[in-house]
Design a protein that fits this description.
Distance between the termini: 34 Å
Radius of gyration: 13 Å
Strand content: over 45%
Oligomer: single chain
Number of strands: 11
Helix content: under 10%
Largest sheet: 7 strands, mixed
Shape: globular
């Protein structure tokens, strides 16, 4: 199970921190990811982190967003700074073990607007 929290309304240039609490699977066996989906658009990968804390970011968030995870607490976070209106989307937590399982959270809405 993946449960996101931390979404909301923020002004352009502001910050938000998303969290995802994971349970029911062996956290360190999975890569953990944040995706987002804006209205009328495809779901897209925002950031990823391995159990060894190797990170990858989409070009459109590099330098602004930071993904982190805690293998003991089994949590995933996304610190989002310098938010732009185009960051408005539903953000989803994802846990993936290739060929084995793919889990999704329910999503949390992030709205960047003045």
């Amino acid at each position: 199970q993946l449960v996101e929290s931390g979404g909301g309304l923020v002004q352009p240039g502001g910050s938000l921190r998303l969290s995802c609490a994971a349970s029911g699977f062996t956290f360190i066996w999975y890569s953990m990811n944040w995706y987002r989906q804006a209205p009328g658009k495809e779901r897209e990968l925002v950031a990823a982190i391995s159990s060894g804390h190797i990170t990858n970011y989409a070009d459109f968030v590099k330098g602004r967003f930071t993904i982190s995870s805690d293998n003991i607490k089994t949590t995933l976070s996304l610190q989002m700074n310098s938010l732009k209106p185009e960051d408005t989307a539903v953000y989803y937590c994802n846990a993936r073990r290739l060929g084995v399982a793919d889990y999704w959270g329910q999503g949390t809405q992030v709205t960047v607007s003045s």
